[in-house]
Amino acid sequence: MSSDIKAQCRDANVEIVRAGLVLLTWGNVSVSDGTEMAIKPSGVAYDDLTDEDIVVVRIADGTVVDGRLNPSSDTPTHLHLYRVFPGLGAVVHTHSHYAVCFAQACLPIPCLGTTHSDHFHGAIPVTRDLSQAEVETEYEKLTGVVIEETFRTWNIDPVAVPGVVVARHGPFVWGPDARHAVENAIVLEEVARMAYHTRELNRAVTPAPSHLVDKHFLRKHGPGAYYGQK
Q1: Which end of the chain offers a freer environment for a tag, N or C, measured as fewer CB atoms within 10 Å?
Q2: Cα–Cα distance for residue pair 212/114, rounded to 1 Å
Q3: Is 227 a catalytic residue?
């Protein structure tokens, strides 16, 4: 099983580079089988990445069970998300340009139209700033905790809104498997770009009406979905 998630993880990490979401080594993807998590090693160039380089970590306690390299420094964040959000199969973290603009502005990505609501059921939230004490103790783990806190505080379903922008930092996005998580990361960056430019055109723009958001999201997701082929 480790070899399966390592191969999926390596392919997904390469894909976020191909999609233009990553410069240098600014990002990582993890893939989970429910018990273990495969993740990119820290600081390794994507061009050099092999299946053997991928590190496998036990989700329950964070123990490295396969791999000779150090896992990503964001590993504790990924682990926390798998522990608190059931059903996640993959997590993507990037520093993609427009998503980071919203993160640095400490603003959620608003749902302004149907492109956004086809994939995210409402605004993509932004976390609060971490305190100095949080940054100086278990920074990466507490990044995961503040993501969890954001979703619980605002009663957001992490399946319906599979992504967040961490204040001053960047986006974390997820899905039931690597393919969907990478797709969600691509869409998050694109809707952030659209929202940025839409506000340039109309500073007074308001969020899309809830009946339109619901229609577009629910025709693609959930038991009543009818978009696409069976």
Answers
A1: C
A2: 7
A3: yes
3-state secondary structure of 187: helix
Q: At 183, list the tokens.
A: 């797709």
**Edge-to-edge, what's the strand order for the sheet holding 170-175?**
64-66, 55-58, 36-39, 27-32, 90-94, 170-175, 163-166
Could you tell me the mean pLDDT of each successive run of 10 residues in the chain, 230 residues long? 88 96 94 97 90 96 95 97 96 98 98 98 98 97 98 98 98 98 98 98 98 96 84
For residue 118, indicate whether it is catalytic: yes
Cα 161 to Cα 171: distance, rounded to the nearest angstrom: 13
Residue 88 tokens read as 């996640």
User: For residue 37, what is the enclosing H or E element?
Assistant: strand 36-39
Of the candidates 118, 129, 177, 214, the residue annotated as catalytic is: 118
